[in-house]
Specification:
- By secondary structure, the protein is mainly alpha-helical.
- It has one domain: Ribosomal Protein S14/S29 (30s Ribosomal Protein S14, Chain N), CATH 4.10.830.10.
- The protein is built from two helices and two strands.
- A two-stranded antiparallel sheet has the order 1-2.
- The radius of gyration is 14 Å and the shape is elongated.
Length: 61
Amino acid sequence: MARASQIAKLNTIPKFSTRHRNRCKVCGRSRGFYRDFELCRICLRVYGLRGEIPGLIKASW
C-alpha cells in the first residue's frame, strides 16, 4: 500500500518529466502497472475476476 505522501505526490506536477511515476488508481502500487487499465497487476486480477472490467476475460486452455 502506498503511503499518503506518495499518493499526494501524484497530484502535483513534477519539475522534470522523468520524475513521473505511474501508480495504480485503486491502491497506489507503483510496480506491475498496466497502462491500458491504469491498475496494478493485483487490482487488475481482482477486478477482472469479478467481471468489472469490460472486455477482459480469463484465459483458459
